[in-house]
Amino acid sequence: MHQGDKREPRLDTLNAANDSAAPDEDDVSDEVAQETDPSAFDALDRQTVLEAQVADLTDRLLRAAAETENIRKRAERERDETRKYAVTRFAEDMLGVADNMARALEAVDDKLRHDEALKGLIDGVDLTAKELASVLERHGIKQIDPAGEKFDPNLHQAMFEIEDAEAEPGSVVKVLRTGYTIGDRLLRPAMVGVAKKPA
User: Fold this and answer.
1) pTM surpassing 0.85?
2) Rounded CA gap, 133 and 105, in Å?
3) What is the second-level CATH architecture of the domain 142-199?
4) For burial by CB atoms within 10 Å, which of 113, 115, 116, 144 has the most?
């Protein structure tokens, strides 16, 4: 070949130059495939769904734990109340005994109290009444003796009104029957007479 010959550049050389300058079609299609790959979206969706499920299950677990604690406390409170108020009916029956003993002692006048023959009997009844009151109190049963106090409809039952210039109107001036509470509940209201202003 002569030096002055001008030859066409070789086709394969041009193709190689074009290949190095332009991105490979396979590489471009791989990038597009990655951007629109449904499995990548599925993984994100799956993670979001799983996170939502974890949050929901955590919330349910906390609610169930709180409900269990509430049930436990309620059962404990009911057990305590059952134990505290189990003697209510028995106590109501025993109050009649306490009333009768109090009436018996009130019926004894001073002359009989000094009678040697009856003194032992009266002292025995008195001691028994005190012991009964002590036993009732040990079981949470306490007397309501409202003499001189303001009338309270939650604790007292008004039987009549008495005109009294010295007593404050609405105050208890006479107790007909002693009342009792058990724990923080009313077992029996006190039957009372209430003062009112004279006409």
Assistant:
1) no
2) 14
3) Roll (2.30)
4) 144
